[in-house]
């Protein structure tokens, strides 16, 4: 790689803006999702399908003998960074055995992402590593904080509903550090053209994620409950007082018009 920066640093620099947008979208919808256990589970199912498709594609890359995917083989199993089984366990806990029926149809962006990952597995398995870096490292980096937030707001008992964010063999920090180190070591052997292709896939992963999040419908009642939950009580009281005042003024104005 011609550039002196590591591959992970180049990913982070290229994806800074869209990463921030993705965080904003997630945080905005999470406020509403955490008011309803079933709604949260249905949203979680969207990313079960993302990780299931990605991990299935990586397994195809391994079966085909792709030399780049093989470098990361030790990470690609359910005891390491793979999340498919953990997501499925959460969905079964939260929605029961018929969770797939409860979650409904896949959105168009989700289907498009699944198709894209399958196409890469068949044509350019190396590029799947950019998606693994984006998706798997997001879980290891932010999963623990999200796990605590979900448990707190949904009142989930220990061991139920947050398996997707729990790593049992190695800690999430250990996995993140090891994967990132190997990723950067591998990146040093790549050409600039290879790096640009990987960066493009890194950005596509965010674009697909954002489209999937946008496509997930949030009921207005859940949005209202979420806003009420995060708004400080004194501010709510002030807002209520203003509403009452405005109603009073409107009634008085209507009364003067009728005289």
From TrEMBL:
Annotated transmembrane regions: 235-253
Keywords in alphabetical order: Heme, Iron, Membrane, Metal-binding, Transmembrane, Transmembrane helix
Alphabetized SUPFAM superfamilies for the sequence: Heme oxygenase-like
A UniProt-annotated Pfam family: Heme_oxygenase
Keyword Calcium attached: no
Keyword Cell division belongs to the record: no
Gene3D superfamilies attached to this UniProt entry: Heme oxygenase-like
PANTHER family referenced in this protein's UniProt entry, alphabetically: HEME OXYGENASE
Protein name in the entry: Heme oxygenase
Organism of provenance: Volvox africanus
Origin organism lineage: Eukaryota, Viridiplantae, Chlorophyta, core chlorophytes, Chlorophyceae
């Amino acid at each position: 790689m011609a550039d002196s920066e590591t591959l992970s640093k180049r990913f982070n620099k290229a994806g800074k803006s869209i990463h921030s947008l993705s965080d904003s979208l997630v945080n905005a919808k999470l406020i509403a999702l955490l008011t309803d256990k079933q709604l949260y589970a249905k949203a979680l199912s969207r990313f079960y399908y993302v990780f299931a498709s990605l991990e299935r594609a990586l397994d195809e890359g391994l079966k085909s003998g792709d030399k780049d995917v093989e470098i990361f083989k030790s990470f690609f199993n359910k005891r390491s960074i793979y999340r498919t089984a953990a997501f499925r366990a959460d969905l079964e806990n939260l929605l029961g055995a018929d969770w797939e029926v409860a979650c409904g149809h896949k959105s168009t962006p989700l289907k498009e992402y699944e198709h894209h990952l399958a196409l890469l597995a068949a044509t350019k398995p190396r590029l799947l590593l950019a998606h693994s870096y984006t998706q798997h490292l997001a879980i290891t980096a932010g999963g623990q904080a999200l796990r605590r937030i979900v448990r707190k707001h949904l009142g989930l008992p220990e061991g139920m509903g947050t398996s997707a964010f729990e790593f049992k063999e190695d800690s999430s920090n250990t996995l993140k550090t090891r994967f990132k180190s190997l990723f950067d070591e591998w990146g040093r052997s790549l050409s600039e053209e290879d790096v640009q292709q990987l960066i493009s896939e890194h950005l596509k992963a965010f674009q697909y994620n954002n489209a999937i999040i946008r496509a997930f419908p949030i009921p207005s009642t859940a949005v209202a409950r979420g806003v009420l939950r995060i708004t400080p009580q004194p501010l709510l009281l002030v807002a209520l007082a203003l509403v009452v005042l405005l109603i009073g003024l409107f009634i008085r104005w209507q009364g003067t018009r009728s005289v």
